[in-house]
Amino acid sequence: MLSIIFIESTRAYQMKTAYITFSCIIITVLLITAGCAKTLDDWINESLYAPKKILCRSWVKAEELHNPANVITNSFNTLQPCARDNAYKFDKDGYYEMNQGNSSCYATQPFLIENGRWDLLEHDTKLKLTLADGSVKRLYNVVQLDTNYIFIATYIDSSRGTKVEVKEKFYPQ
């Protein structure tokens, strides 16, 4: 009788030990997995490649800088608020438009300012805007396009005979 009790208590002890060991293994795996798991921001940064980032919203220019500063007049800072809220929108099919944004400068002004096609080139380092008539409006060098939704691009303006680097910073609307 004593040996039966001893055997049953040994089995109970073994099952309890196995249960505790199994639980410890599960907890350890969960802790290791949680410690190595990507955060939501990590996942977003990796999953939002440039075309998806540019599609997220309308983009409104917030800043324009010229280098050298004295060749071409930087009129952006002197624009009326109704012109400073003009927005670029990019769709998944490669169509873009520039529109009046939240406000027009006068009542009869059409909402759509320009439209055309957009392409990201050279491993998403260049943004090419082609007007609806087929002429290239601008070829931007993409300086920053990230999940903080800041879009910074530069282009060269040689309209006055001297190369001027124009840096434009856009924020989502």
What does this structure look like?
The chain has helices spanning 2-36, 40-47, 50-55, 81-84, and strands spanning 59-67, 87-90, 95-99, 112-121, 126-131, 136-145, 151-157, 164-172. The protein is of the alpha+beta class and 173 residues long. Strands 1-2-3-4-5-6-7-8 form an 8-stranded antiparallel β-barrel. It starts with a helix and ends with a strand.
Labels describing this entry:
35% strand, alpha+beta, single chain, 8 strands, 173 residues
Summarize the structure.
The protein has helices spanning 2-36, 40-47, 50-55, 81-84; strands at 59-67, 87-90, 95-99, 112-121, 126-131, 136-145, 151-157, 164-172. The protein has 173 residues and is an alpha+beta fold. Mean pLDDT is 77; it is low at 28-38 and 42-48.
Strand order of the largest sheet: 1-2-3-4-5-6-7-8
Helix content: 25-40%
| Uncertain runs | 28-38, 42-48
Mean pLDDT: 77
Please, how many helices? 4
Percent range for β-strand residues: 25-35%
Radius of gyration: 29 Å
Total strands: the figure is: 8
